[in-house]
Prior knowledge:
By secondary structure, the chain is mainly alpha-helical. It has a domain at 63-200: Tetracycline Repressor, domain 2 (Orthogonal Bundle). The chain contains 9 helices and no strands. Helix 6 crosses helix 7.
Amino acid sequence: MARPKNPELEEQRRQQVAAAAFGLLAKHSHDSVTLDDVAREAGISKGLVAYYFKTKDAMFLEAIDRYHALQRQMLHFALQMPSESKRARAELLFDCGFPSRESVEQEVRFQSEVWSFAKSRSDVWEKIGTAYRNFRRECADLLGSQGETVDPMTYLMIHALVDGLSFQVALDPTIDLARLREQFVDLTLSLTQRSSKKRAKRALAAPPARKRRRVAK
């Protein structure tokens, strides 16, 4: 008789394997990482890894999904935190993207392998695109004010800024994160405020809509 499954234990094991895969992909190429490597890193048997993930690609896809889910979770947590000012929210955005120099370097290395993996996998490419669009929407939720309209291109610029700075921080250990945080917040606020003002001006300058005359029958 088959032993009944334990959903909590299965989730724990899958998370354990995905975390091990993330750590290995931050150090090695996806082609060179094996199921044996992941099993050793996770501290479980290779058979157990193969039980949860039939192929190496399936395991990597799970690691990518969980990485993106963690990013969303961090932003959702930031959204729940009470903050009275836009500056405080922009600081939260920076802290989510740059928790420490070591974590930024690990994430950049992992993302580099994900991009390499995605070159031959359309499903991975689509996952990345979805994750990027979600990030921009969550930026809008975090930085926007009620009743304020900001051009979506502004959040595209902020996202590009976060991505670009991540690579710079990973490659240059001399960058001062405290100073970078201050300048990132100033630039982010400047972008959102300028966009909001431009949208407001265009709305005021737009001619009023003409009312249709009713034709008597």
